[in-house]
Structures are given as C-alpha cells and as structure tokens.
Design goal:
Blueprint lengths: L1 H8 L6 H19 L3 E4 L8 E2 L5 E6 L9 E6 L5 E9 L4 E9 L8 E7 L2 E2 L3 E2 L8 E7 L11 E8 L5 E13 L3 H21 L4
Antiparallel strand pairs: 1-12, 2-5, 3-4, 4-12, 5-11, 6-10, 6-12, 7-8, 7-9, 7-11
Helix pairs in contact: 2-3
Bound molecules: calcium ion.
Calcium ion binds next to loops.
C-alpha cells in the first residue's frame, strides 16, 4: 500500500494534469479559508442575532417549506405596519459587502416588502423588494451600501416590513447571511491562478 502512494507523491512522477489539479485544490482551499460569511439564520438565529420583530405571527422554527435544513422563518403581516427585525449588538460591518437571503411567497405570492438596515437604533431608508414568487424560493443579495449600513461601526439589524397598507399573507425566509468582502489575497489568487496553472502545464510537457 505504501509503495505506490509514495511513488505518486514524488515530484518527478507528476504529470501536468496532476500538478494543475493539485494547484487548483490549493487555490480553492486558500480562497475558502479567506472567506468568512456571517450566518444570521440557517435553521435558527446564529452568531448573536436576535428576534426583535413585532409582527405577531412570526415563527423562526417553521418546518415547511424550507430552503435548506430543517426550518425556515414564517411571517404573516396582519397589520399594515407589521414587520420583523433581526438584531445584533452594534458591530463593524466593514468585513461584509452584502446581505443574502432566500425568500418564498408561499401559496399566495405577490407580497411587497420593504427591506431596511438599522444602525444605532435608527431605521435607514428602505429598498423595495420585487413582489415575492408563489411557492418558489428566490435568492436576494443586497449590497450593504444600498441599506446605508456599509462600513459602519454601528450596524445592528435588518428589518422586513409590509410595503403596502394591507395585511400580507404568509411568506418564508431562510439562509440569511452577511457576505464577506473578499480578501485581496483571494482576489490575487483568483486572477493569477489560471496563469500559473497554464505555465505549469507548459513546463510539464515532455518533448516527443
Ligand atoms: Ca433552514
């Protein structure tokens, strides 16, 4: 067992394809290590995020439908001003570029929602989400700059709020996270990776 394994690991025995595969594996590991999204909700609230909502019918342990895992968040807006707020003690948002989540309009669909950032207790100007799709999960990614909470030391929350003056039927949220700003080293690897790989292929070619 040990003999063949050793032979494969000797540098001189590697062909071009092996070198490229190894290099790409290392690049992907390096990039994944550099990334550090912050989960807000997967099957429950994570990393110190808390339910500060005021819509009376909200459930953070909803079993169906889910985008992934075992639970999602279900929300029913019974009053025109209802909303859910997910909050965290004040923190620096500069490591993150955007907010990403999956949302599903349930059997009704068409709900219209505002999304707001919160900083130092103040609701920032809202953006209006596209009407929700019926019985379909849709991923939404919003730059923190659009929520006026990018690169702030006092970021603390997000709010989904009824954008109409009417009650809204139940909808669902899942897999909510802050997406990190890629490290410069990751960007460099992604740019230089293909160039280095091509040079390795060329250098490993044996003349016939
Ligand atoms: Ca889930």
């Amino acid at each position: 067992m040990k003999g063949p394994l050793k032979a494969r690991l000797l540098p001189g025995k590697w062909d071009g394809a092996s070198r490229v595969s190894c290099l790409w594996a290392l690049l992907m590991v390096a990039c994944s290590l550099a990334r550090a999204d912050q989960w807000i909700y997967d099957d429950s609230l994570q990393n110190g995020w808390q339910d500060w909502g005021w819509a009376p019918n909200r459930n953070y342990s909803n079993p169906s439908p889910v985008h992934s895992g075992s639970d999602s968040v279900s929300v029913e807006m019974d009053n025109w001003s209802d909303g859910i707020r997910i909050n965290h003690p004040l923190f620096d948002s500069s490591p993150y570029s955007s907010l990403s989540f999956w949302i599903n309009g349930g059997s009704a669909g068409g709900q219209q929602l505002y999304l707001r950032g919160v900083a130092s207790g103040n609701f920032q100007p809202p953006i209006t989400l596209s009407p929700l799709s019926t019985d379909t999960w849709t991923q939404v990614t919003v730059p923190l700059s659009s929520l006026v909470v990018a690169n702030r030391q006092d970021f603390e929350g997000i709010v989904f709020q009824d954008a109409t003056f009417s009650p809204l039927p139940v909808f669902f949220l899942d897999d909510i996270r802050l997406v990190d700003v890629p490290e410069p080293s990751s960007l460099l690897l992604l740019i230089l990776g293909p160039v280095v790989a091509c040079r390795l292929v060329r250098s490993s070619r044996v003349p016939l």
